[in-house]
Specification:
The chain has 696 residues and is an alpha/beta fold. Helix content is 41%, strand content 19%. It folds into six domains: 1-81 and 169-203, Rossmann fold; 85-165; 204-318, Beta-Lactamase, CATH 3.30.450.20; 341-512, 3-Layer(aba) Sandwich (Rossmann fold); 516-589, Helicase, Ruva Protein, domain 3 (Orthogonal Bundle); 595-695, Arc Repressor Mutant, subunit A (Orthogonal Bundle).
Length: 696
C-alpha cells in the first residue's frame, strides 16, 4: 500500500475515525498538497498487508506496539502529543474545586496522557482519574470529561463535559515537518491563525528549544505565532532566526542579517549580557536605526548547556499603552498630578472665580500661564487643570526653571545622546519633553529660564518636535505646556529679559491666582481644614481671629499652613494674640505702607534685585542725614561705604539715587545740593528691612 508517487507519505493510525479526521484536517491545513496524507483506524485489515509510508503518526505506545510488526524498517514513526482547545480548557476550569472527575479516552495510557496535559495547563484542583473501555470500576463521579463524540458516556455522574476532539500539540506538528524535510513549507504557513484556538503546554520558547534541541528548525516556526519581532542567535552569536515582524521593526532585510554575527550587526540588543550572565534581560529601551525599540532577551539553556538566545523586540511608537508605562518608569513616581479642583478649597468669590476660569481652561489644549505670588498654589492649579483635561491618563512632568543651572536645565528638558558631553550617561537620556509626550509639561518659575534656552523652548512649542543635545534627529512630541511665575513677565519683556514671542506663546490662557490677603474670608475656613490634617482642635480668641485676618500673609497659603502646624504643636486649646508666631511681625508692618504703596515697593524690590543691600545702606545713610537735618552727596556716600567695608562705586551711588528719586523715596538736588530721603522713603526702608529679614 501507499506506493508510486514522489511526495512524502504520512499515515495517521487512530483508534477512532473522529480522532483520525481531526488530525487529518490539522495536518492538511498546514502542509497542503506537499504530502500524501491518509488515515485509517487500528482495526483496519489494511494494516496487516504492510505499512509502506515514509512516516506514521499514532495516538499512543499501545498503537505503536500493535502496528510495529507490519512496518518496514525505513518507515519512521511519531507518537502524537495531544492537547485540547481553549474552549475545552475553559469548560474544565468551570468545574468546582475538589470535585471527583473521570477523564474518558480510548485507553488508560491515552487518558493518563490527557490528564497530565490538564495538569500542565494548571488544572490542579480536581481529583481526575482515567476512564477507558472495559473499566467499569469508575462509578458515581461528579463529572465525566469526554473527547468529542464518545460511545462511553453511560457512566452515572452529575454532568458530562465534552471538551471536543483532542488536537495535535505544536511540537508534534514540528516533528512531522522535520522528519519529512518540510520545515520550509511549514514556515510559510499562517501558524498564528491555525493554532489560535489551541492551548499548548510548551509555553516558553526556551523550554521548547531545550526539549527539542533543534534551535534552527523549531524557533523559526514557533515564533510566527507571536505579534512581536523575534531574533534568534546561536551560542556563537550568529543570527539563525529573523522573523518578518523583526524585519519590519528593525529595518534590516532578512538577507542582510541571516547567518551573520548578531552582536556586531545589532550591538544595542543585549544579547551579550544574556549570554554571559545566562539570565534574561527584560524590557530594555534601546535605539536602532533612529527608532526607540523595547527589547527583551532570553538565553536558551537545556541540561546546563547554552544553545543561544532569543530577542523579542517591539517598536516603542507602536505600543502606546506600554510606552506610557515605560515612560512612567523612566520619569519616576514623582511626575504625577495628585491634586484636583476639589482639593482647592475656599468660599470667597475670588477663589471661586479663579477655579471656574481654570476649569474652562482645562478643556482646551492651549498653553496656560499661571501667575501669582509665592505660596498661592500655582502648581496645585496646574495639576488640577491636567487632571481635568483629556491628557489626565498621561504623565504630568514638572520642572523648576529656577532651581537648576542653565546647562543642567537644558539637558533635563531636551535630553542628550551618548557622548554629547563629558559625563553624559551611556546610551543617552530622554528629556522631559519626550517623557511628557501625550501629557503635560509644567514649567514652574518660567521667569527664571535663561534667555538662551527661551529660543529653544519657543521652537518646541511652535514645531512640536525636539532634538536632543548632541543628536541629529527630530523627535515628535505631543505635549501641553503650563507655565507659572511670580514675576512680572511684561516688565521683563520690556527690559529685554524675557522673549516677547515666547511670552505670547505661553500666555494664551492667562490665569492669575489671588493672594490670601484678597480672600480674607477664606482664612479661618482654611485654618479649620488644616487643623483636621494635623489632628488638632484648638480655637481662637476674637482678638487673635482679628489679627489673623488682618495679617499681610506674604507667604500666602504656604505661610498659613506653616503657622497652623506650629499652633497644632503647641497643644493649646485656646490661641490668643500672644500665641501667634507673627505677633512681632504684625507690629513691624502695621501702618508702614498702604496697599498701593506696597505694590510700588514690590516693583522697587524687583528693580533692586541682588543690589537690595546697597539700596538699604544708602537709604540708611540718607535717613541719618535727614535726622541730623543735613544733606549728603554721592561722593560722601562712596567714602562712607568704603570706611565701613561696603563697596559701592561712585557711579553705582549715583544710579541708586536716581532710582530712589524715580520711586519718590528721595529728592536729589543738582550740584552740591546733595540728596535727602522722603517720609515715604523712610517708611519703605522700614518695609524693606522686614522683607529682607523674612527672606533670610
Amino acid at each position: 500500500m501507499f506506493r508510486g508517487i514522489d511526495k512524502k507519505r504520512l499515515l495517521i493510525i487512530s483508534y477512532s475515525e473522529s480522532s483520525a479526521n481531526t488530525y487529518y484536517e490539522q495536518i492538511k491545513t498546514l502542509f497542503s498538497d506537499n504530502i500524501v496524507l491518509e488515515k485509517i483506524c487500528i482495526d483496519s485489515e489494511k494494516i496487516k498487508n504492510g505499512i509502506e509510508a515514509d512516516l506514521v503518526l499514532v495516538q499512543s505506545q499501545d498503537v505503536f506496539r500493535f502496528i510495529k510488526p507490519y512496518m518496514q524498517k525505513k518507515t519512521d514513526i511519531i507518537i502524537a502529543t495531544r492537547t485540547i482547545s481553549k474552549a475545552g480548557l475553559e469548560k474544565v476550569m468551570q468545574i468546582e474545586e475538589g470535585a471527583s472527575v473521570l477523564f474518558l479516552d480510548e485507553t488508560k495510557e491515552m487518558a493518563m496522557q490527557m490528564i497530565s496535559v490538564l495538569y500542565q495547563l494548571g488544572i490542579r484542583n480536581l481529583d481526575i482519574e482515567p476512564g477507558y473501555p472495559g473499566n467499569n470500576d469508575q462509578m458515581n463521579k461528579d463529572y465525566i470529561i469526554v473527547l468529542g463524540t464518545s460511545a462511553y458516556n453511560s457512566y452515572p455522574c452529575k454532568k458530562v463535559i465534552n471538551v471536543g476532539n483532542s488536537l495535535l500539540e505544536l511540537n508534534t506538528i514540528i516533528d512531522i515537518g522535520t522528519k519529512l524535510n518540510l520545515s520550509d513549507i511549514l514556515q510559510r504557513q499562517n501558524i498564528r491563525e491555525s493554532y489560535r484556538e489551541i492551548v499548548t503546554t510548551n509555553i516558553g520558547l526556551s523550554n521548547v528549544m531545550g526539549l527539542s534541541n533543534r534551535f534552527e528548525s523549531e524557533l523559526d516556526i514557533l515564533l510566527q505565532i507571536l505579534d512581536d519581532g523575534i531574533i534568534g542567535i546561536d551560542a556563537e552569536g550568529i543570527i539563525r532566526t529573523y522573523t518578518e515582524m523583526a524585519e519590519n521593526i528593525i529595518g534590516y532585510k532578512k538577507n542582510q542579517v541571516m547567518n551573520k554575527h548578531g552582536l556586531e550587526i545589532m550591538p544595542d540588543i543585549p544579547f551579550k549580557l544574556a549570554l554571559e550572565n545566562l539570565e534574561a534581560v527584560k524590557e530594555k529601551l534601546i535605539k536602532i536605526n533612529g527608532y526607540d525599540i523595547v527589547a527583551s532577551v532570553h538565553p536558551i539553556i537545556h541540561s546546563g548547556k547554552l544553545y543561544g538566545a532569543v530577542a523579542i523586540v517591539r517598536k516603542f511608537s507602536d505600543i502606546e499603552k506600554n510606552q506610557h508605562k515605560l515612560r512612567q518608569q523612566l520619569i519616576g513616581k514623582g511626575h504625577i498630578a495628585k491634586y484636583n479642583f476639589r482639593d482647592i478649597i475656599g468660599e470667597s468669590e475670588a477663589i471661586k472665580k479663579c477655579k471656574n476660569i481654570a476649569k474652562r481652561m482645562a478643556k482646551s489644549d492651549s498653553s496656560v500661564m499661571i501667575t501669582g505670588e509665592t505660596g498661592t498654589g500655582k502648581e496645585m492649579f496646574a495639576q488640577a487643570i491636567h487632571n481635568s483635561s483629556q491628557r489626565k491618563d498621561y504623565q504630568f512632568v514638572a520642572v523648576n526653571c529656577g532651581a537648576l543651572p542653565e546647562s543642567l536645565l537644558e539637558s533635563e528638558l531636551f535630553g542628550y545622546e551618548e557622548g554629547a558631553f563629558t559625563g553624559a550617561r551611556k546610551g543617552g537620556k530622554p528629556g522631559l519633553f519626550e517623557l511628557a509626550h501625550n501629557g503635560t509639561l509644567f514649567l514652574d518659575e518660567i521667569g527664571e529660564m535663561p534667555i538662551n534656552l527661551q529660543m529653544r523652548l519657543l521652537r518646541v512649542i511652535q514645531e512640536r518636535e525636539v532634538m536632543r543635545i548632541g543628536g541629529d534627529r527630530l523627535i515628535k512630541v505631543n505635549i501641553r505646556i503650563i507655565a507659572a511665575t511670580n514675576r512680572n513677565l511684561k516688565e521683563m519683556v520690556r527690559k529685554g529679559e524675557f522673549r516677547e514671542d515666547l511670552y505670547y506663546r505661553l500666555n494664551v490662557l492667562p490665569l492669575k491666582i489671588p493672594p490670601l490677603r484678597d480672600r480674607k474670608e477664606d482664612i479661618l475656613f482654611l485654618i479649620n481644614e488644616m487643623k483636621n490634617e494635623f489632628k488638632s482642635n484648638f480655637h481662637f480668641t476674637e482678638a487673635s481671629k482679628e489679627m489673623l485676618i488682618n495679617h499681610n500673609w506674604r507667604g500666602n497659603i504656604r505661610e498659613l499652613k506653616n503657622y497652623v502646624e506650629y499652633l497644632a504643636n503647641l497643644e493649646l486649646d485656646s490661641i490668643d494674640v500672644k500665641d501667634l508666631p507673627f505677633n512681632d511681625e504684625v507690629v513691624l508692618h502695621e501702618d508702614i505702607l498702604t496697599h498701593d504703596e506696597e505694590k510700588m515697593a514690590e516693583e522697587f524690590l524687583e528693580l533692586a534685585d541682588e543690589k537690595i543691600d546697597k539700596y538699604i545702606f544708602i537709604m540708611e545713610e540718607l535717613k541719618k542725614s535727614y535726622i541730623n537735618k543735613t544733606r549728603i552727596g554721592r561722593r560722601t556716600l562712596y567714602k562712607t561705604a568704603r570706611e565701613k567695608g561696603f563697596f559701592i562705586s561712585e557711579q553705582e551711588a549715583r544710579l541708586i539715587l536716581i532710582n530712589l528719586e524715580k520711586f519718590l523715596m528721595a529728592k536729589v538736588h543738582k550740584g552740591r545740593g546733595g540728596s535727602v530721603i522722603t517720609e515715604y522713603g523712610i517708611r519703605v526702608l522700614k518695609y524693606l528691612k522686614v522683607e529682607v529679614q523674612d527672606s533670610k
